[in-house]
Design a protein that fits this description.
The structure is a single chain. The strands form 10 sheets. A 6-stranded mixed β-sheet has the order 1-4-3-2-5-6. Strands 35, 37, 38, 40, 42 and 43 form a 6-stranded mixed β-sheet that branches. It is mainly β and 730 residues long. A hairpin with a 5-residue loop joins β9 and β10. α1 packs antiparallel against α2 and α2 packs across α8. Helix content is 13%, strand content 36%. The radius of gyration is 27 Å and the shape is globular.
Length: 730
């Protein structure tokens, strides 16, 4: 048995003792101090050094165990960003950092990302997760889990606490142990008080990116039909379209309601996280995900970070809580009234109806934090197995609470692994089954629950062993219907009543897939499997980046995709199989638009002279990394998007930058005047650079403005315009 294994068992016993509510505080502290005395006398190894070339985040250089960890109390967090349990301890670590600032206390928090999925090994994806979850402490990408294997770590998350000699003194496994963590650190500071020398870490000063987008990591979306979203037009005026798109703007902690053309009509909540009820302006959310619309005017929101379900009344324009208490719960049975019933990271919601009703009377909740499916009764009803539910009651419907891929005819004996997307559907043949489809992300599978009897069955993906949560990949079976299907951390599902097909956001494969529930055939519909951004009409050219949510406008045959890491909504014409990006915009006056443009200072501004008969041309930009200490990150999703354009049009509004080349096709038939200031295109390029020596990665956004001048004396119409720019890491 390794010394870490021995220390782990010792800490498990210690934790059991100090979590005894009958012990006095002094007794608990003495137990911890006695443990430290014992550990100091034992034989232990120094924490292994980080390897050269590993990529770091939130630091200006790579960290060293020998120098940066010396004379400090270091809390090392072994995590992987997909894991809900890892997400749950982030508030604990944040609270620890606030109580013990490293430059004053000598307490340091460092994250070691040890990937479960292949997609999580990519540094640009880790960088996005660090930004999405607001992680401010240093994080290193141990893509091959070298330290995990060396130290024989067995569980996400695992916290390893090091003493000032850089040797482990405590181990904490799993979530829900904030008090234990704080007690360990407090006692370690007391025990080692004469050996700790506080000093600041080399934190990167620009550890948060400003995204030039209306959306930030959008999670889920849904179609709503409601006549009270906007103020009615005057009598006799054109009738307003009452169909809208609701978007969980997760990174901005708000809900947006837009027209189907992308114009923002309503904003609910603010850009700061919080848990408040009230009007649209005063209400607050924390990383909202799933949303479901109940006519005529009710929008249910899975307020994930607040562990609650909120109700947006589009008529009264108010937000209330209908389930959850604002803090993470551990209850796996339920039965309390909604606002008295704690939940744990609800990730998605959808509406269903009981056997005695044709209208929705139950809100189904993917309670990812306890790996279960829950329900909130919207009125008195009878559910499967003659289960009577009182209006407002919230309880577990399926799942034991164990994190497994276990199917069973009895819903309470089945088990899920972080269910993250749900959608109801009725099969038209052969038996008219009423099913709930579940994107079970950590088992990389799609499951189905029969809403008549509660039986849970596998649909596609995952392994045969219920305990095996590592059966993932990218494999369809449309050419071999009896063959295995492999997915990678799917987060979203949407059922099409018309086509009788389930659309799946195979998130970590960056694809949209189709599943036939009758034949269990799975095929790739859109996406070439590489993270990136590209619209179009071919599977090979279209790219997504961890799409997390789907919804279908059945009448228009449009599939909407929340393309999470691209910070946008994609719009797929299901008839033509063509993908485009929905431009999310705020309607501004001409004066407001000009002010916005004037306040944006381009990183580069260039000009091009065109002949009057110019029709179309190609603009190519070559980027060079000017700093010799940095390099271009080959595997990152470099991208561009047009932020402003006047006097001409572009064939595409966004695109992928490949081999450090940005290419934009422009049409200039409407260019104005000979020297007018209104002919220009302004582009934001998002680039990823990595330090050659330290491995530190950063995102660099630059604004490029290309001005056009028409010259009557120019006879040659340029078809190509080329520029090259040197990009600095700072």
């Amino acid at each position: 048995m390794s010394f870490i294994s021995t220390l782990t068992w010792s800490c498990i016993k210690l934790q059991g003792l100090i979590e005894n509510p009958e012990l006095e505080e002094e007794e608990k502290n003495n137990l911890v101090l006695n443990h430290l005395n014992s550990v100091e006398e034992s034989s232990r190894d120094v924490f292994p050094e980080f390897q050269p070339g590993w990529e770091w985040f939130n630091t200006s250089r790579s960290l060293s165990v020998s120098s940066d960890f010396k004379d400090q109390i270091v809390v090392v967090d072994f995590f992987t960003y997909c894991c809900i349990n890892c997400m749950h301890i982030l508030p604990d670590l944040h609270a620890l950092e606030e109580k013990f600032p490293s430059d004053q206390s000598g307490v340091v928090v460092v994250g070691i990302h040890s990937a479960k999925f292949e997609n999580e090994k990519v540094s640009s994806n880790i960088m996005a997760a660090v930004q999405r979850y607001g992680i401010a402490h240093p994080v290193v990408n141990d893509s091959e889990a070298v330290l995990w294997k060396t130290l024989e770590i067995t569980c996400w998350p695992t916290l390893l606490i090091l003493g000032p000699d850089r040797k482990p003194v405590f181990v904490i496994i799993g979530e829900g142990h904030r008090d234990v963590l704080f007690r360990y650190v407090d006692c370690a500071l007391t025990f080692y008080k004469n050996r700790i020398i506080p000093r600041p870490l080399p934190l990167f000063p620009k550890n948060s990116e400003v995204f030039q987008s209306q959306l930030l990591f959008p999670g889920k979306i849904c179609i709503i039909e409601c006549e009270c979203v906007e103020v009615p037009t005057v009598s006799g005026g054109p009738k307003q379209d009452s169909t809208y798109l609701a978007i969980a703007d997760t990174g901005h902690h708000r809900i947006l309601i837009t027209s189907l053309q992308g114009e923002i009509k309503v904003t609910v909540g603010g850009e700061a996280p919080g848990w408040k009820e009230g009007s649209y302006a005063t209400a607050q959310f924390h990383s909202p995900q799933g949303i479901a619309f109940l006519p005529p005017c009710y929008l249910y929101v899975a307020d994930t970070g607040n562990h609650s379900v909120r109700l947006v009344n589009l008529k009264s324009k108010e937000v209330n809580t209908v389930a959850g208490k604002g803090v993470q719960g551990t209850d796996k049975e339920g039965g309390q009234l909604g606002t008295e019933q704690p939940l744990a990271s609800p990730w998605d919601v959808c509406l269903a109806h009981s056997s005695n009703s044709d209208d929705p009377d139950l809100l189904i909740i993917a309670n990812a934090g306890t790996h279960q499916i829950w329900g909130l009764a919207l009125r008195d009803l009878t559910w499967w197995k003659k289960m009577h539910l009182e209006a407002g009651r919230c309880l577990r419907l399926a799942g034991s609470g164990a994190e497994e891929n276990r199917n069973n005819s009895y819903p309470a004996k089945a088990a899920f692994a972080q269910p993250s997307g749900i959608s109801c559907g009725v099969l038209q043949s052969p038996s008219a089954d009423y099913l709930l489809f579940v994107a079970d992300s950590e088992s990389s599978s799609i499951r189905q629950i029969n809403l008549k009897d509660g039986s849970v069955k596998a649909l596609v993906g995952g392994g045969k062993d219920p305990m095996d949560l590592f059966c993932f990949g990218d494999q369809d079976n449309n050419s071999n219907p009896k063959g295995a299907v492999l997915l990678q951390h799917p987060l979203g599902v949407a059922w099409s009543t018309i086509s009788q097909i389930l659309y799946v956001a195979d998130s970590y494969n960056h694809k949209i897939k189709l599943v036939n529930p009758l034949t269990k055939v799975c095929s790739t519909y859109l996406g070439n499997g590489k993270p990136g951004f590209a619209d179009g009409g071919s599977e090979d050219e279209i790219q997504f980046n961890e799409p997390g949510g789907l919804c279908i406008h059945e009448e228009q045959r449009i599939l909407y995709v929340a393309d999470t890491n691209n910070h946008c909504i994609r719009k797929v014409d299901l008839v033509r199989s063509v993908t485009e990006t929905l431009k999310i915009s705020v309607k501004l006056s001409a004066e407001e638009t000009q002010t916005l443009i004037s306040n944006t200072v381009p990183s580069f501004e260039v000009s091009a002279t065109l002949a009057p008969r110019s029709s179309n041309f190609n603009w190519t930009v070559k980027f060079h990394c000017a700093d010799q200490q940095w390099k271009w990150s080959d595997d990152a999703p470099h991208s561009w998007k047009i932020t402003h354009i006047e006097g001409l049009t572009a064939t595409d509004k966004m695109g992928h930058i490949q081999d450090s080349l940005m290419k934009i096709d422009l049409l200039c038939g409407s260019l104005q005047g000979s020297n007018g200031p209104n002919n220009y295109v302004q582009v934001q390029a998002d680039l990823f650079l990595c330090a050659i020596k330290s491995g530190v990665c950063k995102k660099k956004s630059v604004i490029i403005r290309l001005n056009f001048v028409l010259n009557e004396n120019t006879e040659v119409a340029e078809s190509k315009i080329q520029h090259e720019f040197d990009i600095n890491a700072d």
